[in-house]
Amino acid sequence: MSTKKPENTGELYRNLVVRLRNFVISPVLEWRSIHRESTTFNDMLGNFALPLVGLVTIATFVSHLINQQAFILELAMKKAILVFVALLGAVFLSWYIVAKLLKFFQFVVSGELAAKLVIYSSGPLYVISFVTALIPEIFFIYILAFYSFYLAWLGVRDIAGPVHHRKFVFSVVVGVLVMGIPFLIKILLLNLLTI
């Protein structure tokens, strides 16, 4: 995938699909490519996380609107906003925690590295959330979101830093953050909003 900014929305989503496909077909090569890229947090957010979070949000809105007995626009909007805030808030919170943990695990402290690990390891969760928002009956495919742990491990494995077992523990922590924080935020907001 190229490191230049996409010219239009079509190119943005084409690059997004290529990156997601590469994470499935050849994740090791894709991580090497990502580590060679010099990108900012905002670029990763705008070219990867936000488009996927937006798709999940739209899918949640449409699904909630259609799957309810009555077309309650307000309730569908609340549900979509809740999903958007949970997923996007999880990116920022996970990024902050991972950036702080880099020093503890004896990695070179880098906000860019923390962002790459969090944002790109979240890809499977976004894709599965999108599919299950459209087809809620197949909720059991959330088990495939554990691929995020594998992506986190591959993202950490080739980075200079601590010994092998510390890298493994760190990748597990990243996976737990990427998988757990969106659900914790969603539960917290559901209890606050009482949808």
Quick description:
This protein has one domain (41-193). The protein is built from eight helices and no strands. The protein is mostly helical and 195 residues long.
Write up what this structure looks like.
Helix 1 crosses helix 2 (27-36) and helix 5 packs antiparallel against helix 7. It contains eight helices and no strands. The protein has one domain (41-193). The protein has 195 residues and is an all-alpha fold. The termini are far apart. InterPro entries: Yip1_dom.
Portion in beta strands: under 5%
Overall radius of gyration: 17 Å
Distance from N terminus to C terminus (CA atoms, Å) equals 41 Å
Label the structural class: mainly alpha
User: What is the percent of helical residues?
Assistant: over 70%
For the sheet with most strands, the description reads: none
GO cellular component, one term: membrane
InterPro entries: Yip1_dom
Domain Yip1: 24-180
Subcellular location: Membrane
